[in-house]
Amino acid sequence: MLYYLSLLTHTDQLAFFRLFGYLSFRAMAAVVTALVIAFWINPMLIRWLKMKQGKGQPIRADGPARHLLEKAGTPTMGGLLILIPWLGSTLLWASLSNRYVWIVLLVTAAFGLLGFMDDYYKVTKRTSDGLSGKSRLAIEFAVAMLATWLVMRIEAPNLQGMLAVPFIKSALLPFGLFFILIGGCTIAGAANAVNFTDGLDGLAIMPVLIAAATFTLIVYLVGNERFATYLQLPYVAGSGELAVFLAALIGAGLGFLWYNAPPAAIFMGDTGSLPLGGALGAVAVVAKHEIVLAIVGGLFVLETVSVIVQVVSFKLTGKRVFRMAPIHHHYEQLGWTEPTIVIRFWIVAVVLALLGLATLKLR
To answer: Where does the pLDDT of residue 68 fall: very low under 50, low under 70, confident under 90, or very high at 90 and above?
Structure first.
């Protein structure tokens, strides 16, 4: 919205507004704005959610025993603390004529609403099981595939239905309409991967912020024709505007982490994990960096794979590979303290982000 003030530069008195036309300035402003909004409204939201939820989020009976004692009574739906500053700052600083911005906002809002409904069911029914898994997946894939189709309609013809391969110069694999399924799996898969990771205080949000910061740089580069050409990346005109969207996420996420750091005053819940992952997936689809997202978000992939391996192994052999899945609970059962697990997983996320960034040059 404020981007359009940059057009009011016909007099020296209004020359200051030229800054609003610079993507880098608006991205930095989006971080600060989201952070300020978060610190302003989050204490009020936490008090309101505590009052409305009473006993807080139901704790899994089959989870680590200490969670029943230490985390009981903590409210959920903390994703609202992220979504409100994030979307508000994006609408304030992004160019609202950019169609990519509206597509990722659609994914974020739809997944946020779905996550809210899931959390609402858990709180009102006093169960750790939310909506039907099949129904939730069906909605996620419907939204994700719709978003992919919309992206394909507005991107350049030479990029439509193409999957970029990292480490190889200008490698684009043609999938045609089948790419809608690939994009759908990327977006829905990222949403559920972050959801699996959200199990300890501060565990999910920091890797999300690391991935968001990484993709802020990626969309800035692929959205700039000169940089994209130099680095031999697919040039996606208009994708640079998503840097504002991701920057707002970073500011909102930091504001949430202030209250989610151990011991958490509030849980993210599906209200936060689903839109966070879905948004990262949608940005990756726009930027033609779906495979790079799997590298940068490798921690989320590991968490998801641990669940799949555990389920398949138990169904086929009756034995469990891990003491508990997702894998962060396995380390809890081994005796690792929660802060140790969280910080070490953050370190892994940083290393994987650096590997993802390496793909920009190693081609």
So the answer is: very low
Which pair of structure tokens corresponds to residue 64? 């680590």
Give dist(CA 34, CA 247) in Å, integer. 9
Task: Specify which residues 155 forms β-bridges with.
Answer: none
pTM: 0.93
The tokens of 156 are what? Answer: 């350049």
Distance CA 353, CA 304 (A): 18
Q: In DSSP terms, which residues pair with 163 in a beta bridge? A: 173
Contact status, residue 23 vs residue 240, Cβ threshold 8 Å: yes
- Tens digits of residue pLDDT in 247-270: 999 999 999 999 988 888 899 999
Which residues make Cβ contacts (< 8 Å) with residue 209, sequence separation at least 6? 249, 250, 253, 254, 257
Report CA-CA distances (Å) from 301 to 64, 269, 290, 357. Answer: 22, 19, 13, 17
Model confidence at 100, pLDDT cuts 50, 70, 90, reads very high
CA 244 from chain centre, in angstroms, equals 14
